[in-house]
Design a protein that fits this description.
Layout (H helix, E strand, L loop, with lengths): L15 H4 L2 H17 L3 H18 L3 H6 L5 H14 L5 E5 L2 E4 H26 L4 H11 L10 H31 L9 H7 L1 H24 L18 H23 L5
Antiparallel strand pairs: 1-2
Length: 272
């Protein structure tokens, strides 16, 4: 399961999404989230799904990698669907047993919510983390938030922390997997017993993981000090970010998709 978590991983490539300006990709990610949650009927949601499929195709990321990223949140999606099915009121009753009544509106809302979650994870991962290196993402965050530095906000340090966090997510996942395998080799059992027993069994995992994390943080701080890192003041950039024609064309495509979804929401407001 831990090997299926791909959050924070970067897959080098030469696709259109890889070539986009990282600042533009952050804005596109925000627009994509707005598009997903603006879809209120099956027609507009279908347009959002087409956009997600198109982005996946343009990224040239292996579809198996994207499907693997869904496994860790499968429980969340099922739990969300069940909660919406049984606790969403409505007018059209599908069936009832005892005090539990399932409405058509609840099933519809649950299905659309699950689709939104799938599209949200797929699109944001493909646009941002899968196709953007941590260094480029750090530079983009710093450039976008640079106006805040004039009022004393440490934008460079904030961007650096975000980059380090994304960079070490795969490392910590791999470290956790190694600790779990080592504890299982010593006879630890993480899968059987009561919930309290399994929670206690996590202690031999969390303690070594925290120690390893603090050790890595200390080593990283020492390495940055040895390289005379003192924040972003006076630092130059090896690569200067510049918006290109493909960035503007992609922004127009996202804007047109959002406009189409708003139109479909108003045109087919009462459908289904």
């Amino acid at each position: 399961m831990l090997n299926d978590i791909t959050l924070g991983q970067f897959f080098p490539g030469n696709s259109l999404l890889h070539k986009l300006d990282p600042r533009a990709k952050i804005i596109f990610t925000i627009l994509y989230i707005v598009i997903i949650f603006s879809a209120k009927n099956p027609f507009s949601l279908a347009v959002a799904a087409i956009l997600a499929v198109s982005l996946t195709a343009l990224s040239r990321i292996n579809i198996k990698t994207i499907l693997k990223s869904m496994k860790p949140i499968l429980f969340i999606m099922v739990f969300t669907a069940v909660m919406n099915i049984f606790w969403t009121p409505g007018e059209n009753v599908l069936f009832s047993f005892g005090k539990i009544t399932v409405y058509y509106e609840g099933v519809r809302f649950a299905v659309m919510m699950v689709i939104r979650l799938v599209l949200l994870i797929t699109g944001t991962f493909v646009i941002l983390t899968y196709t953007t290196s941590p260094v480029a993402l750090t530079d983009a965050i710093e450039r976008l938030t640079s106006p805040l530095s004039k009022i004393g906000v440490p934008t460079h340090e904030f961007a650096m922390m975000m980059s380090i966090a994304l960079r070490f997510i795969p490392t910590l996942i791999d470290e956790t997997d190694k600790i779990i395998c080592a504890q299982k080799a010593r006879g630890a059992d993480f899968e059987t017993g009561s919930l309290l027993k399994r929670a206690k069994a996590l202690i031999p995992i969390l303690i070594p993981l925290f120690i390893s994390s603090f050790r890595r943080a200390d080593e990283l701080a020492s390495a940055m000090e040895c390289r005379l890192y003192h924040g972003g003041n006076g630092r130059t950039r090896m690569k200067v970010l510049k918006l290109s024609a493909r960035d503007y064309m992609t922004s127009l495509a996202f804007a047109a998709t959002l406009a189409l979804i708003i139109f479909l929401n108003t045109r087919f407001e009462a459908i289904l």
